[in-house]
Amino acid sequence: MRIPAPKDNVELEALEQREWRESLDYVIQQGDRGRVQRLLATLRHHSRMSGVELPFSAVTAYVNTIQPQDETPLPGSQEIERRIKSLIRWNAMAMVVRANRVSDGIGGHISTYASAATLYEVAFNHFFKGKGRDGDGDSIYFQGHASPGIYARAFLEGRLTQERLENFRHETRPAGGLSSYPHPWLMPDFWEFPTVSMGLGPIMSIYQARFNRYLEDRQLKKASNSKVWAFRRDGETDEPESLGAISLASREKLDNLIWVINCNLQRLDGPVRGNGQIIQELEANFRGAGWNVIKVIWGSDWDPLLAKDHDGLLAKRMGEVVDGQYQKYAVESGAYLREHFFGTDPRLLDMVKHLSDDQLKRLRLGGHDPHKVYNAYKRATETKGQPTVILARTIKGYGMGEAGEGKNVTHQQKKMNEADLRSFRTRFGIPISDEQIAEAPFYKPAEDSPELTYIRERRKALGGPVPQRAVRVEPLKVPLEGVFEEFLKGTEGRKASTTMVFVRILSKLLRDKEIGDLVVPIVPDEARTFGMEALFRAVGIYSHIGQKYEPVDMDTLLYYKEAQDGQIFEEGITEAGSLASFIAAGTAYATHGVNTIPFFIYYSMFGFQRVGDLIWAGADSRVRGFLLGGTSGRTTLAGEGLQHQDGNSLVYSLAYPNCLSYDPAYAYELAVIIQDGIKRMYRDQESVFYYLTVMNEQYEMPAMPEGARDGILKGMYRFKASTDSKSKLRAQLFGSGAILNEVVKAQEILQKYGVAADVWSVTSYGELYRDGHACERWNMLHPTETQKVPYVTQCLKDAPGVLIAASDYLKVLPDSLDRWAPRRIRTLGTDGFGRSEDRAALRDFFEVDARFVAVATLSELLKEGQVDAKLVAKAIKELGINPEKPNPATT
Ligand SMILES: Cc1ncc(C[n+]2csc(CCOP(=O)(O)OP(=O)(O)O)c2C)c(N)n1
Ligand SMILES: [Mg+2]
Fold this sequence. Notes:
alpha/beta, 20 strands, binds magnesium ion
């Protein structure tokens, strides 16, 4: 039949559209998807070349990514899985409700797990690989606030007793409790990854996935199909660290990484994006960054409706409703949904006229539909060349009903009254009678019940339980004397900085036959700053795809070499990312059974001060390895000024209980500390890590004094005793790091004023402080036994004279030893903001140079009545000190 000629432009356009659609339909029916995609790409290119720009859109429609015709049925028994999930839901809720009845205010969360139960259970039953299979399982980052659900499952699996569940949030009880959130420090056989400081789990998971690749590429671990799963949360994505590293995952093609973001559209106070759509916003971010995005918005109940949506009316309506309104639909009746959601268009109303209000109310969302979730996971695990993010829509507090389902208060809801409990029980079919319900008892079916049999069989088939932290590493047996020997001798006139010494130690360790392969150097675009560029060529920079270009400096000896088996992580300017790598490498002994030894060197000011919470997460993870605070010391780093000059980090690091901090001055000190650190962490398998400050001031490195090793490790030793045994005026001078040299100079100055002073190198105020308190505590609790003497007290027992300490860090460090010293310690330190200046001027400004050490000593002797005030005034004058200079601590 001949089509009549169009009357106007509208008709013409309608005709064109129909013809083009029909042509496309023909290709869709005849060809594969690739053919359709190529055709559309060609048309897009053609129109662009003809000057027609297509508007950019990073988002797809507000519907599921996977179409029903592409789905496969969920294997296993849906019915048993549903019952298991219901029991876990119940026990997780009961755990929190019961804990708060016994101890009001103890806290705990119901609503997070309630919204995520299906997301977890599908993975537990079908995807999560345990450690037993091929010796290597998946690494799973659980949402911190979902921990009650994870404990409740472990209870059904027989891994946790009912008593432990009763002791949720009562960790100090003798029978053992359960920690509020995932903490490997507190439950070292259970939790692997701490996640509850929000935003850290996401970035750690990305670098974990990349590190797993690194181990395989460097053949430290055999290739496996293990995945890193990160269960994240919509509100959490506001934290800058959450999305800050997503481009690394796509750039590195980390198809071993799967993120599941539980989009319940709510955070603690209210909606995440009340006036927008968090799912669409995240889709744009992830698609833009090159991730495979799978949206799981609508459950199977919606499929028949969408199948009827030929004109895209329903999809359009879905896309225009904002999240705050969707939350309202979740708490309202079916009649409300009909009127307000479908009621905007008679054609939409017509689509649902066969459904009752009750049926409308029960239309499930994607994240609560095991079939949809299964298909998303399946596609994610099969995706090659890209990381995947699943954006799953759920309802916060799902199942809590009036007590909080979808309500703004749900996050904090810890109590359920009897009516709430009864409806929860009925909704999920928990076999608990009306008489018992008020107690909210735990429920575990018989060991031979179909539920427990199923749960055991599934986990067995998948390689054992998760989460499980299991240290299966062989301790290293290496003396390493050969590596460290040369540093004990000193540099015999040659000048070097402790940074240069560190780089030499690192290079030698990298060449060591026994442990060289295990060393993991990490730098955040600072290798040249620390003189490490020779390592680029020597061991290569890690890149999964090798080097696809000819480096500009190819013709030089030390060219910029990237390689698939490269050993260095050159992370670019991200201390957070570098730390995430440090944590992955420093916990590989537990995650993979590999003793990798990370050395992460960075500008010390950008460590504890900037990414301290990540270091805290590392400490919780029982990380091992060395953090090197480069260019540290407030007056040692010349020129850089207020932002860079670090006098703080050693104070911060004191707060990390398993971090040993040292401020070494000389090559042998650094060597002794690193050697002992490797021994403690990798031979003795202690869960400690090290923070070492290294400086860029160059000076001659002396040979190690006899018998100093023990003191170096404990925190202090006498470096240089006075040669003058006759003088009555005596002093003990403490120095550390680069300031030790000023103290040595002060020893000479003081001689001129008749004072005989001994010089001590204090390598660690932190260790001395801990030892002092440990002794005091023990003595308090054991009054009838021989009292312990703190190491500082032992050192100073027979050391005569006044005590003066100079540090390139806050005065509080030396001050902290005061009570264990025989007399008060006069402290010089660098409280205040740094300045752009040279070293001499800085040390004058902060009053920590040799002259100030000398004057402080004389001033203390004056207080003791041993010298005259005139002598001190004379010294101030002779040494050229301006007594009216402003106080550096406050200017
Ligand atoms: C860094 C950090 N800031 C704040 C909190 C406190 N906090 C705990 S849960 C929460 C809201 C969580 O909302 P969302 O991320 O959407 O997770 P949901 O519970 O909804 O899955 C907040 C603010 C935290 N744990 N960590
Ligand atoms: Mg949320």
